[in-house]
Each structure stands twice: as C-alpha cells, then as structure tokens.
Amino acid sequence: MTSLLESIKGVLGAGHKGPVLGIDIGSSSIKVVLLEKADEKVVLRNYGELALGPRGGAAVGQATNLSTEKISEALRDLLKETGITARHTLIAIPFSASLLTVVELPDVGRKELDSMIPIEARRYVPVPITEVSLDWWILPRRKSEERPVLATGVAPVKQIGKIEVIVAAIHNEIIKKYESIKRDAQIPGEASHFEIEIFSTLRAIVGRDMAPVLVVDIGAGSTKLALVDEGVVRGSHVISMGGQDITLALAHSQGISFDKAEEIKCRAGMIGEEEGRDVLAVAELLLANIMNETVRFVENYERKYSTKITKVILVGGGARLKGIEKLVAQSFSTASIAIGNPFVRVDTPAFLDTTLRELSPNFAVAVGVALKGLEE
Ligand SMILES: Nc1ncnc2c1ncn2[C@@H]1O[C@H](COP(=O)(O)OP(=O)(O)OP(=O)(O)O)[C@@H](O)[C@H]1O
Ligand SMILES: [Mg+2]
Fold it and tell me: Is residue 12 assigned to a domain?
C-alpha cells in the first residue's frame, strides 16, 4: 500500500498516462469518476453512481452495511453499466474505518519517530497495534507559531522542541476487505491504491487557501469534518448523523414512507411553501445537532491555536439540500459558507454543466481520489 496520508498537492504533477478511475464506496451509494490528463488539463471522461439501498433491503438514500460480496457485485455492475475501463484505479476508504489523530511529540528525528509512533499510537488505537497499518506525517509548523508571541498577545501553544504528527491507523481487516472488493469487482487498471476519503475530498475541494477552512462532508449515515490550516489537515472528526436522519424524521413527522420523504426532501429542500416548510421543520433540528457538534470541534481548535476559521465548505449528498447554507451560517456567523464543487478544476462537457453542478457535492471523494492517481 502507498502512503495513507497525502498533502494537498497540485494536480499537474508527472502523473499516470491514460484514464484514472476514482471509486468512492459510500454507505448509501457508490460513486465512480474517470479522469484523464490532456494538454495539461484534467478532463472528465466518465462518471456514474449506483444506490446501494435496493441491494440490501433498504431505500435509495439510506445507509447500508452490505457484505463485501454484495459491494463487489454492485461495483462490478456499475462499471459494466458505465462501460468504464481505466489504466489505473484508486479507491477511497471510509473515514469511519480509519483512526486519525494529531499527537504532539518531541522533535527527535524521523528514525526515532518511526519506533516511537507505534508505541505512542497504543494510547489511541483501541485494538492491538499489530492488527493495524500505521502511517504518519509531520505537520509543518504553523507560520503563526513561529513568532514568539501571537498578534493576539497569546503565547504560542507549542513548546520549543515539540512537533505535531498526524497518525493514521487502518485495521488490516479493512484493507483486506478493500483488496477483495478490488479483486472481485474486476476493477480495471494495473494497480490499485487506497486513500482515506477526507484526503480525497480535500484534494478536490480546497484550493491554495492558507487561512483555516472547515470542510463538512454530509453523507447518508455520517458527517465527516476536516480542518485544513495553512494547507494541511490539522484536525478531523466524524459525527454519526447524516442526510438519512433528515429523511427518517420527515417520514415520521408526516406519517409517510422513507421513499416518499426522500423524494420530497431532495425535490423541495427547505424552501418553498408547504413541503419546504415541513422539511425545514425537521431538518432545522437535525442540522442544529450536527452543527452543535461541529462548532464544538471547531472551537476547540480555534482556542488551542488562537485562530478563527474563515470558510466552511459543504460537500456530500447532504450539501445538496436546498437552503442548507443559510442554516449552517447560523452556526458560523463570521465564516463564509460555500457548497464545494469538485469539478471546478476539471474540464467537463458543456452539455453536462447543469447536471454536474447539481451532482457535484456527491462526487468530491471520487474526483479527489482520481486526482491522486493523476498526481502519482
Ligand atoms: N438533492 C438533495 N437534497 C437533499 N439531500 C440529498 C439530495 N441528494 C442527495 N441527498 C442526500 O445525500 C445523502 C447521500 O449522500 P452521499 O452520497 O454523500 O452519501 P454516502 O457517501 O453514500 O454516505 P456516507 O458518506 O455517510 O458513507 C442521502 O442522505 C441523500 O438523501
Ligand atoms: Mg460519502
């Protein structure tokens, strides 16, 4: 396996020749994107999505927990349906299947860290360390911390001689599971690599912003948070609530089926007269719960580093909920709120403009992991 952690690099590195396939196996649907580099531009060659709900006795838009065999079968069908063939394939690993921690360690050099980190990681990893694959990366010191005293008059947090290291752990069983999906789904391409999904999202979404940015991926079953500061991830968190909880609440409050509630939520969103008001009534409460946890996570970071996030970027299917920016803005009054579009730096056919603009938040992970393939 290649490195689990990647800094956000530009997409115009040496890269693979030929089309690269990016795969995001979400809890509610699989997304695939085929990208190719042509004349120094990244071009969209193909894309597709397949809902997993109906393959596991659940509805479209509902989170599933399918067997490896069923996932492989669904992915194989999706690739067949889209007619995708690729020279190289990359798969994103769900954030919830990984453990990502920032630890403060003495600045003892890489060799020492290599032996120190597995020992240190035992404090954070709840299973025997021999059962996980570990990767780590030294976080560059924040520019603001290089000054003896911050502009705010607050002393820098870190003591001299300490460094921050981001450590990723993935259970070997999870890697085995993805290896077998790769094999059974007959994934095209010479080699396949894995990456934790938030790194894929960030590659596709966050530009060269140096100010602290929060990326919120609202999936079906969970919401993933990543805090990027001075160009690198410095914090992450997962909340076990997502878009399906809004649908479930709407179905209960209106006494309608999940399918019907999902249809209303996706069509009306939180705007419009009657239906929009019904969706708003339930979504407001659920999003408030998600946002409260998000604000707590952000405030911890802001307090620790005497900084303030300037921007919140929303992705994932949940970010397509009409009117969501306004609700999120209530929790982040000093930051700007945007819906992330992973296709902005990708050349796409004009006739797909409207469709892709609609779908784009869902495809952040798939585009991001394919971009990694073009960089490698
Ligand atoms: N137009 C829309 N308006 C509101 N919600 C939407 C819309 N389209 C999709 N969603 C919601 O987005 C969610 C699915 O998002 P996404 O595809 O990002 O999830 P996933 O990647 O499968 O899940 P996870 O990341 O949690 O594993 C569903 O709850 C669905 O109802
Ligand atoms: Mg997802």
Answer: no
Measuring from atom 4 of ligand 1, which residue has the nearest CA?
321
Other Cβ atoms less than 10 A from the Cβ of 235: the count is 21
pTM of the shown model: 0.92
**For the chain, what is the domain count?**
1
Q: List pLDDT tens digits, range 122-133.
A: 998 989 999 999
Q: Which two tokens stand for residue 91?
A: 């798969």
Output the pLDDT for position 251. 98
Q: Look at residue 11 and tell me if it is in a domain.
A: no
Burial class (CB in 10 A: 0-12, 13-18, 19+), 17: exposed
Can you tell me which atom of ligand 1 is nearest the CA of 223? 26
Q: Give the range of the structural domain holding residue 335, as residue numbers without chain letter.
A: 20-375
List all residues whose CB is within 6 A of at least one atom of ligand 1: 26-29, 61, 63, 94, 219-222, 242-244, 247, 262, 265-266, 269, 316-318, 320-321, 362
> What does the pLDDT read at residue 153?
46
Protein residue whose Cα sits closest to atom 24 of ligand 1: 219
Which atom from ligand 1 is nearest to the alpha carbon of 221?
Answer: 26
pLDDT tens column, 138-172: 999 887 666 444 445 454 555 558 999 999 999 99
Structural domain includes residue 4: no
5 lies in some domain = no
Beta bridge partners of 132: 171
Rounded Cα–Cα distance for residues 150 and 317 (Å): 39
Residue 333's CB is within 10 A of a number of other CB atoms, namely: 6
Q: Sheet with 232-239: list strands edge to edge.
A: 232-239, 223-229, 213-218, 311-315, 336-339
